[in-house]
Design a protein that fits this description.
By secondary structure, this protein is α/β, with parallel strands linked by helices. The protein has 18 helices and 19 strands. The chain has helices spanning about 1-10, 140-150, 160-165, 170, 180-195, 215-225, 250-265, 270-275, 280-285, 305-310, 325-335, 345-355, 355-360, 370-395, 415, 450-465, 500-505, 510-515, and strands at about 25, 30-35, 35-40, 40-45, 45-55, 75-80, 110-115, 120-125, 140, 150-155, 205-215, 235-240, 250, 295, 315-320, 400-405, 440, 485-490, 495-500. The protein has an 11-stranded mixed sheet, sandwiched between helices. Strands 1-2-3-6 form a 4-stranded mixed sheet, with no helix packed on it. About 55% of the residues are buried.
Length: about 525
């Protein structure tokens, strides 16, 4: 059941050896020499930014469905004033995504640097989007970088079939005979670029934190479990990324799905697949579960097993979720289409999705609408309870700090605001991101007291990136004890408080049993 629900996510991201700071060009724009060549960024009111820097060769032609290759050096100074291409993906609600992208030349990253030349801690952000959508440019973290005195890097990586196709033929091209992790390997290539180059932008390669939301958070969970990522970061932040218990596809399942995908395209070999256009690949990928694959050198065992057996990275982690995660997905399934869930439909929908016991635990009389009642159960089973389970598991191998974003009056994130709906999203999926960064470069929609909460959250995240402990001035320290979480709320709703009741509030005794049944 959880696997089926998780699929909803995909329906709805010349060398100088000695480090030197960025140098100002004659006309004022900063120039930095990377290991592949010089790039010219620009100065802004928040600091300096360098956009669309390639960290790997474009994965086109013979490089499609291969591990990323080192980018070739260029001559002269390359402009880094514009974002690179979005990776292959469908159109969506999001601003700037009104048309699909068929561009495979997309392995770029963006670097945001505050003014000054101190060696700073680094945050590397993996975007969300169900591993089928999104790009590094979805967030603009320039203000975060200035306020926290950190360097922030946002990353594009291959998505959907381009990033996660596994087949017997592709297995034969890999050294460990396990394909399907190309998007995850892109993330590691970006981290190796950071290790080699970030000191030239003022960052400290020894103090790198990886972070992400939704599929980006799941990516962090996966990279924690990957032995080939070890040493590339010293901390991780997982925001709403514990869905499906961070599980990867088995190799057997991934190859079987890949065979169905190949058949759908009318191919029988890899040469035929590589001859298909990006548009043909994209149009065929719907209905499949795209994600990482366990069983090879990148991910020998499931992330849960890697944590349990002690092979996962023993770095400090912030892990959390949002109080009303499920409302976004319930809205997409019902109200978005003009067909809100009705009281008459509710019992059968709940029984079919979750079973009779869930119907008793979530009586319709306790909620303002049937859609929100269903959404509450959906968010509890898919996000809130898996996050709490992950807390306990992560605590066996290192420090884990827990939060729940609970601003029930938070404005819908940018994509939903464009829909002009009066649906009550509460503290739904993605809503916390706008408290940390600007989304899609748009102005903040937060009111005065939400801006106060935003500053506090930025302090928590920034402190963790710099020092490994999430603190905010005048606020409780984010707890490092499983079962206790920091509830993030505005002052009028009680402010930031420690809570030991979230497990009960989200009915996790019901869902924890379902996850192992």
């Amino acid at each position: 059941m959880i696997r089926r629900i998780a699929l909803v996510l995909t329906a709805l991201a010349a060398v100088l050896v000695a480090p030197v700071p960025a140098q100002a060009a004659a006309h004022g724009d900063p120039v930095v020499r990377t290991d592949a060549g010089r790039v010219r960024g620009e100065s802004t009111a928040e600091g300096r930014q360098f956009l669309g820097i390639p960290y790997a060769e474009p994965p086109v032609g013979r490089l499609r469905w291969r591990a990323p290759h080192a980018v070739r050096a260029w001559h002269g100074v390359r402009s880094a004033r514009d974002f690179g291409n979005k990776c292959v993906q469908s159109a969506s609600w999001d601003p700037g995504y009104e048309q699909p992208s068929y561009t495979e030349s997309c392995l770029d990253l963006n670097v945001y640097v505050p003014d000054g030349f101190a060696r700073r801690s680094v945050l590397v952000w993996f975007h969300g989007g169900g591993l089928t959508a999104g790009a590094g440019q979805d967030v603009v973290p320039d203000t975060f970088a200035r306020q926290t005195r950190t360097v922030v890097v946002t990353v594009n990586y291959r998505l959907g079939a381009m990033g996660f196709l596994a087949t017997a033929g592709l297995d034969g091209e890999t050294h460990d005979r396990v394909s399907g992790n190309f998007g995850m390997l892109d993330q590691q290539a970006a981290l190796r670029w950071v290790r080699a180059n970030i000191s030239r932008f003022g960052g400290d390669p020894a103090r790198v934190t990886i972070a992400g939301e939704s599929a980006g958070g799941r990516s962090v969970c996966t990279q924690l479990a990957s032995p080939t990522a070890r040493g590339l970061f010293r901390a991780g932040i997982i925001e709403s990324g514990a869905y499906d218990d961070c599980g990867a596809r088995t190799h057997q399942d991934a190859v079987a799905q890949g065979a169905d995908f190949v058949k759908k395209l009318g191919c029988t070999d890899i040469a035929c697949l590589r001859g298909k256009s990006a548009r043909e690949i994209l149009e065929a990928q719907g209905g499949f579960d795209w994600g990482p694959v366990a069983g090879g050198a990148f991910l020998p065992v499931q992330p849960e097993e890697a944590v349990a057996n002690g092979t996962a990275s023993r770095v400090p982690v912030i892990n959390g979720s949002n109080k009303d995660e499920g409302r976004l997905f319930a809205f997409a399934a019902y109200d978005l289409n003009g067909t809100p869930l009705t009281a008459g439909q509710y019992p059968d929908v709940m029984r079919n999705a979750f079973g009779e016991q869930a119907l008793q635990r979530y009586p319709l009389s306790a909620y303002p609408t049937p859609t929100i009642a269903y959404a509450t159960a959906l968010g509890d089973t898919l996000f809130s309870c898996p996050a709490l389970r992950l807390d306990g598991l992560l605590a066996t191998r290192g420090r884990v700090y827990s939060y729940e974003f609970a601003d029930l009056t938070s404005p819908p994130f940018a994509s939903l605001r464009n829909l002009h709906t009066d649906f009550d999203f509460g503290a739904t999926h993605v809503n916390e991101v706008q408290y940390l960064f600007r989304q899609f470069g748009l102005d903040s929609p937060l009111n005065a007291e939400q801006r106060v909460l935003s500053r506090q959250m930025v302090q928590y995240w920034g402190s963790f990136v710099r020092d490994g402990v999430p603190r905010a001035e005048g606020q409780p320290v984010m707890p490092g004890v499983p079962g206790t979480v920091l509830s993030l709320k505005t002052a009028s709703k009680g402010g930031n408080t420690l809570s030991t009741s979230v497990h009960q509030e989200h009915q996790c005794d019901l869902w924890d049993g379902a996850s192992t049944g």
